[in-house]
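General statements about sequence and structure are easier to judge against a single worked case. For one protein, we set the task of working out the structure tokens from the amino acid sequence alone. The sequence in question and its structure tokens are set out directly beneath this paragraph.
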Amino acid sequence: MAVVGSSIVPGGGLLTPTLTREVIAVANTEQSYALPTSTKSYTIYNDGSTIAKIAFAVGESATDYRTLYPGCHICRDGIASTAALTVYFQTAKVGDTIEFETWT
């Protein structure tokens, strides 16, 4: 995990980015990443060589997921909630990497 700087947001205040890389340890097995508390924006990158299955509820990365092709990303901005959010993901290849860029 690395903090890479900060950014001024409209209306004042600062956002701090964090970059995290999660490596697939077991193929076709759900892993999870808890977004930092008070995340305002996130981007999920598939830096692997196979399709990633992304879900927002435990157990759904195998059944009710969003497909993320290699080299592609999903992003969300303007998150107002301070509730905890966990991302669940899996790929078919050990060693694939999913990257998370969050702004708090």
User: Anything to note?
Assistant: The chain has a mean pLDDT of 89. The domain at 2-103 is CATH 2.60.120.10 (Jelly Rolls). The two ends are 14 Å apart (CA to CA).
